[in-house]
Design brief:
This protein has twelve helices and 18 strands. The chain has helices at about 15-30, 45-55, 65-70, 70-85, 120-125, 155-165, 200-205, 215-225, 280-290, 320-330, 360-370, 395-405; strands spanning about 5-10, 35-40, 90-95, 105, 115, 130-135, 140, 145-150, 170-175, 195, 225-230, 240-245, 260-275, 295-300, 305-315, 340-350, 380, 385-390. Strand 1, helix 1 and strand 2 form a beta-alpha-beta unit. The structure holds adenosine-5'-diphosphate, aspartic acid and magnesium ion (MG).
Length: about 400
């Protein structure tokens, strides 16, 4: 039988009525003749609550126990979804990650999927089961411990199942009706895209557009999964939502196709470090070991053999970063006068494959920010994106200004 993967995010399974609503959508596909693999997130707000409990209990927590706690939200919704489907007379069964088993690396809290053996699910489908409900976000490490795939990881669970089971399509049902030119929650001028190229979606996701987890887009691109984002609250059909597809399959293409933001960034500066070969390695090695996700890096021009080194990282990793750098200083491997953390910054980025062949996007971006009197703290660029770090209080303003400047509200 043809097979579909349908993923429902937190808001889409936020209470029992919403689970029923999602189950209706599944039922429709079963009646059309599909076997379905349903991936569920935890109820909205649940994972945040669990993360909060872990952080309150142990600020520099053991990631194995973090995973044991935060993976539990999905167990509840998976069981409830299977029960809801059974009540509708649809043969359904739930699986937690370890039962499948969805095998991952042992990088707790940010594990990567290694393999998904098909045997267990195939056997059940062979016995007449029509829907397998899988708890998203979680797997099992080679050591036999529960792992999680990073925030938003249920998207990746969904795409990985679609690839492993040769699904006809992977439908990501969420609380917006597709991928927009920017987050529709911060700009009412945001425009829904019918299609978006894998590479652009990949950049938007990695730069903060949380509608899809970055890794899910990478997997879809690699395994040629037909990936679609659509609303779980509206009536939908074959043509609803946004299709993530190859660049060649997009007819009309703007130079800039989207604006993304990351609200909770921090900027850390090591003041007056010795400017010598190996200094970057001596600073960023310990940060990597401590699990700090360093993003932008700037080294100032040195004076008298000393320089300032600035980097950005998520705001909730500042404590970890400070600890790692202070330890390195105490051990004598680095030497700095002061460590200054600015926890009130945000990153705003513009993305578009058209930038490859169009000069001038950066200057247009900087002019737009200058017109709004927004000071740029750090800049980074790549082939198809430009990112700036600015004061957090100007973030919304910057997104709106850039959305206007690049004409994204117009078709
Ligand atoms: P789910 O719980 O279904 O996984 P998420 O909250 O993870 O949903 O992702 C959906 C949210 O992503 C939307 O509510 C929206 O606010 C946000 N978002 C950010 N950028 C975009 C964008 N470019 N297009 C659509 N949604 C976006
Ligand atoms: N529940 C997890 C999270 O909130 C995974 C997901 O929803 O995709 O990050
Ligand atoms: Mg999500």
């Amino acid at each position: 039988m043809p097979l579909l993967v349908m993923k429902f995010g937190g808001t889409s399974v936020g209470d029992l009525d919403r689970i029923k609503n999602a189950a209706q959508k599944v039922k429709r596909e079963v009646e059309r003749g599909y076997d379905v693999i349903v991936i569920v997130s935890a109820m909205s707000g649940k994972t945040n609550e669990l993360v909060g409990w872990v952080e309150q209990t142990s600020p520099l927590f053991d990631a194995r126990e973090y995973d044991a706690v935060v993976s539990s939200g999905e167990n509840v919704t998976a069981g409830l979804m299977a029960l809801t489907l059974q009540e509708m007379d649809i043969p359904a069964r739930s699986w937690q990650g370890w039962q499948v088993p969805l095998k991952t690396t042992s990088a707790h809290s940010a594990a990567r999927i290694e393999s998904i053996p098909r045997d267990n699910l195939d056997a059940k489908f062979g016995e007449g089961m029509r829907v397998a409900v899988i708890a998203g976000f979680q797997g099992i490490s080679p050591e036999g411990r529960i792992t999680t795939l990073g925030r938003g990881g249920s998207d990746t669970t969904a795409v990985a199942f679609a690839a492993a089971f040769d699904a006809e399509r992977c439908d990501i049902y969420t609380d917006v009706d597709g991928v927009y030119t920017t987050d529709p929650r911060i700009s009412d001028k945001a425009r829904k895209l019918d299609r978006i190229a894998f590479e652009e979606m990949l950049e938007l996701a990695s730069l903060g557009a949380k509608v899809l987890q970055t890794r899910s887009v990478e997997l879809a691109m690699r395994y040629k999964v037909k990936l679609r984002v659509l609303s779980s609250f509206e009536d939908t059909d074959e043509n609803s939502g946004t299709l993530v597809c190859d660049e060649e399959d997009i007819v009309e293409q703007n130079v800039v196709s989207g604006v993304a933001y990351q609200r909770d960034e921090a900027k850390m500066t090591l003041i007056s470090v010795a400017d010598r070969p190996g200094i970057a390695a001596a600073i960023f090695g310990p940060l990597a070991e401590a699990g700090v996700n360093v993003d932008m890096i700037v080294q100032n021009i040195s004076e008298d053999g000393r320089t300032d080194m600035t980097f950005s990282c998520p705001v909730n990793q500042v404590a970890r970063a400070s600890e790692a750098l202070t330890k390195a200083k105490d051990a004598g491997s680095i030497n700095f006068h002061e460590l200054v953390a600015d926890t009130d910054v945000a990153k705003v980025s513009v993305v578009g494959i058209g930038m490859r062949s169009h000069a001038g996007v950066a200057s247009q971006m900087f002019e737009a920010l200058s017109r709004e009197n927004i000071n740029i703290r750090v800049i980074t660029t790549s082939e198809i994106k430009i990112s700036v770090l600015i004061d957090r209080k100007y973030m919304e303003l910057a997104v709106q200004a850039l959305h206007d400047t690049f004409g994204l509200e117009k078709a």
